[in-house]
Amino acid sequence: MKTEGHPNYVAVKVTCSCGNVFDTRSTLGKPAYHVEVCSECHPFWTGKQKVLDTAGRIERFKQKYGKRA
């Protein structure tokens, strides 16, 4: 296998907005990354759904379509 054609695969530190910090590997070359969601805070993995109701959109939807059979 040729060694010149492959990118460097180095260890990096990833920091989530929830405060979780973990180590992984990457070929991009940055020593650290910041992400908004990770497996510790993502609703799919935690089972906790965060509903962000902006300007009452959910209530307007329920009023408009909720009474139909």
From TrEMBL:
<keyword id="KW-0862">Zinc</keyword>
<dbReference type="GO" id="GO:0005840">
    <property type="term" value="C:ribosome"/>
</dbReference>
<feature type="binding site">
    <location>
        <position position="38"/>
    </location>
    <ligand>
        <name>Zn(2+)</name>
    </ligand>
</feature>
<protein>
    <recommendedName>
        <fullName>Large ribosomal subunit protein bL31</fullName>
    </recommendedName>
</protein>
<keyword id="KW-0689">Ribosomal protein</keyword>
<dbReference type="InterPro" id="IPR027491">
    <property type="entry name" value="Ribosomal_bL31_A"/>
</dbReference>
<dbReference type="InterPro" id="IPR034704">
    <property type="entry name" value="Ribosomal_bL28/bL31-like_sf"/>
</dbReference>
<dbReference type="Pfam" id="PF01197">
    <property type="entry name" value="Ribosomal_L31"/>
</dbReference>
<comment type="function">
    <text>Binds the 23S rRNA.</text>
</comment>
<feature type="binding site">
    <location>
        <position position="41"/>
    </location>
    <ligand>
        <name>Zn(2+)</name>
    </ligand>
</feature>
<comment type="similarity">
    <text>Belongs to the bacterial ribosomal protein bL31 family. Type A subfamily.</text>
</comment>
<comment type="subunit">
    <text>Part of the 50S ribosomal subunit.</text>
</comment>
<dbReference type="InterPro" id="IPR042105">
    <property type="entry name" value="Ribosomal_bL31_sf"/>
</dbReference>
<keyword id="KW-0479">Metal-binding</keyword>
<feature type="binding site">
    <location>
        <position position="18"/>
    </location>
    <ligand>
        <name>Zn(2+)</name>
    </ligand>
</feature>
<keyword id="KW-0699">rRNA-binding</keyword>
<feature type="binding site">
    <location>
        <position position="16"/>
    </location>
    <ligand>
        <name>Zn(2+)</name>
    </ligand>
</feature>
<dbReference type="InterPro" id="IPR002150">
    <property type="entry name" value="Ribosomal_bL31"/>
</dbReference>
<keyword id="KW-0687">Ribonucleoprotein</keyword>
<keyword id="KW-0694">RNA-binding</keyword>
